[in-house]
Design goal:
By secondary structure, the chain is an alpha/beta fold. The chain contains twelve helices and 14 strands. It has two domains: about 15-260, Aspartate Aminotransferase, domain 2 (3-Layer(aba) Sandwich); about 260-355, Alpha-Beta Complex (Aspartate Aminotransferase, domain 1), CATH 3.90.1150.10. The strands form four sheets. It has a seven-stranded mixed β-sheet, sandwiched between helices. Strands 11-14-13 form a three-stranded antiparallel β-sheet, with no helix packed on it. The protein starts with a strand and ends with a helix. The mean pLDDT is about 95.
């Protein structure tokens, strides 16, 4: 089955075979070596040249676990978090902090609109209690790419902490974490890194780690300094999904062999292939080209075609697309091009799509 949804993604046979490696105890040296390999590769891939300035915190859980860990671990007593919300995953960040009453009024936008950095600057000047700004890099709700560098500059200029949900962006979009002075970046194995779901991570600027040690522990499982202290000794404080870590390690090898920039360009080429063909078929994209990510495109449903019928007809031919969410549920469909997929497979999907749209 070809998965055209934004995670879980299709993985290579090489990554899949890594699941079959020998069982090991996570308190033994073999796991410590595996963990350190993963951490080293994450830093090499995503903060090249600044590896000594960051620590990679690895945990068992989905990308949401990494995002929640970053948010909950980043705030001292008496301070607040401001979320830039323009999609389902920005809304999720807001819901996370709302559970603990840690937020101020979010800056909320329509799902097709990028955050306004001037409004952010005004909000930070008005709300001195805000210590952290959170934002999603790639909002897969619509395939919208948010302006990370511009927002990071504003946050840094106001001496605040920027927490970036890059779960659906790392290895799919250009991102200079160190240059942009981003304190915390959340990611996961099962998206553009082309691993399996179940392992996520947070890249944390080392200069921020010592400050975090004095912050309240708002979660036992997700408090990042627990991981940092244990992982420095080669262990994880809670039982990890060992076999999935093996596959993650292999997926990172694949990423580094391909090169992060080369993978970004591969995804961009595949997105262009899909978009050009859809345009020729008269299928209209939800977003203008300058707001689209490299790895997912949202389209208006063709006239007279329901999502469920389109989904089912494509699945019969071996292709899984993705529905819209919220008030877009019955209006759009989404096509992701993450994962270990070839140009031939995308061509097959596009042929199947054209056939599926024809009257029965």
């Amino acid at each position: 089955m070809v998965l055209l949804n934004p995670g879980p993604v299709n993985v290579s046979d090489r990554v899949r075979q890594a699941l079959l490696r020998p069982d090991i105890c996570h308190r033994e040296d073999e796991f410590s070596e595996l963990l350190h390999r993963i951490q080293s590769k994450l830093l090499k891939a995503f903060v090249p040249g600044a590896e000594s300035d960051y620590v990679a915190v690895v945990m068992t859980g989905s990308g949401t676990a990494a995002v929640e860990a970053a948010l909950m671990s980043s705030l001292p007593h008496g301070r607040r978090i401001l979320i830039l919300n323009n999609g389902v995953y920005g809304e999720r960040m807001s819901q996370i902090i709302a559970l603990h009453r840690l937020g101020v009024s979010e800056l909320k936008y329509e799902w097709t609109v990028r955050p306004d950095h001037e409004k952010l600057l005004l909000a930070l000047r008005q709300h001195q209690e805000v210590h952290v700004v959170g934002m999603v890099h790639h909002e897969t709700t619509t395939g919208l790419l948010n302006p990370v560098q511009e927002i990071a500059e504003i946050v840094d200029s106001q001496n605040r902490v920027f927490v970036l949900d890059a779960v659906s962006a790392l290895a799919g979009e250009p991102l200079d974490i160190a240059k942009s002075h981003i304190y915390m970046v959340a990611g996961t194995a099962g998206k553009c890194i082309q691993g399996f779901p179940g392992v996520s991570f947070v890249l944390v600027r080392k200069g921020f780690v010592e400050k975090m040690r004095s912050y309240p522990k708002r979660s036992w499982y997700l408090h990042l300094t627990h991981y940092i202290d244990n992982e420095g000794r080669g262990t994880i404080p809670f039982t990890p999904a060992v076999q999935v870590y093996y596959a993650f390690d292999e997926a990172l090898d694949e990423l580094l062999e391909e090169g992060v920039s080369n993978r970004v360009q591969r995804y961009k080429r595949m997105a262009t292939l899909i978009r050009d063909r859809m345009t020729s078929l008269g299928v209209k994209a939800l977003l203008p080209a300058d707001r689209q990510s490299n790895t997912i495109t949202a389209y208006h449903l063709p006239d007279g075609v329901t999502y469920q019928s389109l989904h089912d007809r494509l699945k019969q031919q071996g292709y899984v697309i993705y529905a819209g969410q919220g008030n877009l549920e019955n209006k759009i469909f989404r096509v992701a091009n993450m994962g270990a997929l070839t140009e031939t497979q995308f061509g097959g999907f596009l042929d199947a799509f054209e056939h599926a749209c024809k009257p029965v």
